[in-house]
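hi support,

uploading two proteins for the ticket. first:
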Amino acid sequence: MVIHKNNLHFLRFLLATLVIVGHAYALTDPGNTHYYRGHYVFSSLTALSVNAFFIISGYLIYHSLMHTGTYRQYLTNRLLRIVPLFYIVIILTVLACSFFFVPVQDRPYWEQTGTWDYLLNNLTIFRLTHTIPGVFISNPEPLVNGSLWSIPYEIICYLCFSALFLFRDCSRQKDLIMIAGYIACTAAYLAVHVFHLLPGSGVTDTLTRCLLLFFTGMMTARFLPPAGISPLTALLCFLAFAGLYYFRQHLFYEDLYMLFVFPFSIFIMYIAFVPNRLLPRFAKLGDASYGIYLTGFPVQQMIISHFPGWHPLANASATCLIVVPLAFASWHYIEKPILSLKYRVK
């Protein structure tokens, strides 16, 4: 699907671990009172990491659309990659949280509606519930798995841009549609975040941002070969976007920094494809990024429940020691075998 010798596995692994570090500060010190500088730096890195995940997804999905035999195969590949592990994590989380339950109104864990609401709502993927009554109530934040929020938006991006499949053999029409789509995504982002021409909400704000990030990755895949990016160009692109992100509160419109996400995408793709001998070998270990991303948050909450006084970096380190081996095992014994089923679909 994509050039085989690349650093994408390592890059996504790094991004997933950075998300854990950022969440450690947010979960242990949500009021930002004790670890101010670390909280700001790592929460910024977490946001940038999630942005990078959507850009990389857009890049990979473009190649999947262009090289998958049928539309049915494309949808099957996407569902097999996202849904099975998502369901497994939800079910295992509900089971594990029974050990961290404090009775609510003397009702056992399995007899309260909140437990089943969490399970059944999250299994729909699009009706996410983030708390279970009585679970993690002594933690600074009672959320069970805040990382789940991005999965519905990822699936929406898969579906929205899959229309390009119809034009993949028509180069000129495809390019015109991609340019028009990118302009539309940018206009929607401006309308919601900057000019407030459309009613804003948590869903519309997040959706317009995710669509813009995802489509930026697709545009990068179509119009910018990674081999054509020089180190100086990559550095300047990163400094431009990072500077705008860091000083975004001083912009006339704070969310304008997202209009410069294309330079950030260029930097991400440079890192993903810069020639080297070491990082491509990381791919042989497997793709643990999705498992790390899904399981990191609840494991962090469990550690906070037992060791509430730990420094955020201690929490992040302990979490990584637990979830990284589990994620690699998940890839080899769950995700990879499930993905092999895609070859049965014509």
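and the second one:
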Amino acid sequence: MDRPPVALWRHWPGDDQHAGALAASTLRFQQAYDWDFVKLTPNGAYSVRDWGVRSVWDGDPEGSRTITQRPIQTPEDWRSLRPLSPTQGMLGEMLQTLRGVRRGLGPATPLFHTVFSPLAQAQRLAGPAFFQHLRDAPDLVRAALDVITETTVDYLAHVRRAGADGLFYAVQWADAHTWTRDAYRQWGEPWDRQVLEAAAQVFDFILLHIHGSRIFFDLFVDYPVHAINWHDRETPPSLAEGLQRFKGAVVGGISQQTLAYGTVEEVHAEAQDALQQTGARRFILGTGCVTLITTPAENVRAVRAAVHTRFPAFSQELG
């Protein structure tokens, strides 16, 4: 490819509860915009639903769901956690979705699937009580993280067989709002590495997403991943700084807010600045996270147009 790849992805509230509906929405988005890869974006609580988490979509513009029920209320509740079957329940539903998207895409377009870190899953299971549990019963939480990791690793091979070429590994709350660096190294990194080492055995490409602001970017630069995506317009480092610190590719360049509420000209300007920062090398153009569901179609089209403007020979090839 003689230009940087470009891709956007988004949530599909409502449709993300059902395999057929989510597959259809994902394919329609790809058919409309022809991204260089497709990322399947299930709802954020999909991996913990079968442990008892319940959620609703209540209008969030990201398309994210609000958790209404958590199974872990007391430290002792962590003892009840058992490994899930990766082919049953909501995990099985996502495998069915992957198979449907793969059939619709054909073999040529890379397909990535979202998997959340064990720590992110644990925090969804317990909510705000999680940190008190860490203080009161760290051994119980540690054992539960092992169970979550076992389920996640088991799921990866099934994800690959269902048609995914790559992994979108989402780390959440790895930031100064939530943790210290040392605390994340203790409670996040060991289980991250177990998942990523397993993922490296089955996937050709791993894209790490670091969610949030004031992120601990430098904790992740030696993770075994090929690319890193973060909210580069809202939190350090910049794309240029990220390229200096990380040997792989960086993904982003356009603010969620600009994409949703800015003009076509503003979207184009951020894209061109991102291409300038990176020299269009080791770079995938996108946004720092999901595309808001309120984003105008003309702004989504502008993301691809920005690449065509910078690489006119490619644009002429497309006609």
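thanks. also noticed: Confidence is low (pLDDT under 50) at residues 313-319.
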